[in-house]
């Protein structure tokens, strides 16, 4: 009976609604992302345009998360803001189907990612408000699991749609509107909002200063870890280069994509399992520190420059395990250490720190790889990962 009561208390309409929303929303925009490079090439836009589209969109999304986090804490109701963000993203992603020039794709992607940034802090604050603190790990882990399932389904759907439509990119983009609007409906119909009443007016800087010291120390650990947390698309490049002398370029690229699919499967599984474990152990931070330590082991293995397929498979599995652990545990610790009235600001600030870390790590690892070699690049990542793990363990 206690187990049944606990299950009923955390696996509720809100948790299910947020999870399904994440699944369908990621399914929508990952379908579009999978065919975007080929579509840009078809309309005469080169890699520079792709880099500009991704860079500007990610920057706007990070800024929007920080601003939205502050704004959502001042609202009587957070849910309409999140619904608006999901609808904005769905419509803007589908607009690629009407684009004839690269600047139109840039505008659509920027608007879509602006919607992602606006909805994120509100979504996480609503989720944390409707589950008991002892179930934060499972709730955020389930959300991340379903998000990753959507990310796996998106590219597979894109491949099927390209075949079914005779490689008509515009029809693929328009199809994304279906899962995108299902995501909006799931959030609107299933997610509940706890009444919080009016909020006292507070400036952005005062909101930042009001965040507790223990959360700021968490941000420092997350930032240091993030400075070494390279984009996992680099793993595809790494595997391709290591396998090419043995298998040839085409075969190596295919194997690398298969390994990345394995990575995503383990990432999805570890998201929920690590969250479940963090709800069972006395100290939630130990699970996140263990995830950071696994990242350190992954980076050390990458320093070997191995051409062994089995060792590469192990590297991709470990990378998936720690990737699935990061976000749900960081979110759980944030929700645990900050008052619910400040959750929007806290989640927005956490997202901004992660975004800065992503940018810094891309520059750091990419530059070191080009200038000094793969061993130096991933050794630097390993060092930052271990420092991050130690700082997490030292949190009070």
Helices, strands, pairings?
Blueprint: H1 2-10, H2 13-42, H3 47-72, H4 79-94, H5 102-129, H6 136-164, H7 169-175, H8 177-190, H9 204-210, H10 213-226, H11 233-247, H12 249-280, H13 284-302, H14 309-337, H15 343-372, H16 374-393
Helix pairs in contact: 2-4, 2-5, 2-6, 2-7, 2-8, 3-5, 3-15, 4-5, 4-8, 5-15, 6-12, 6-14, 10-14, 10-15, 10-16, 11-12, 12-13, 12-14, 13-14, 13-16, 14-15, 15-16
The succession of helices and strands, N to C, reads HHHHHHHHHHHHHHHH
Specify the oligomeric state.
Answer: single chain
Strand content: under 5%
Main beta-sheet annotation:
none
Number of strands: 0
Tell me the span between the first and last alpha carbons.
Answer: 34 Å
Nearest-angstrom radius of gyration? 21 Å
Unreliable spans = 1-7
Question: What would you say this structure looks like, in words?
Answer:
The structure is a single chain. This protein has 396 residues and is mostly helical. It is built from 16 helices and no strands. The chain has helices at 2-10, 13-42, 47-72, 79-94, 102-129, 136-164, 169-175, 177-190, 204-210, 213-226, 233-247, 249-280, 284-302, 309-337, 343-372, 374-393. Helix 2 (13-42) runs antiparallel to helix 8 and helix 4 runs antiparallel to helix 8 (177-190). The radius of gyration is 21 Å and the shape is globular. Mean pLDDT is 87; it is low at 1-7.
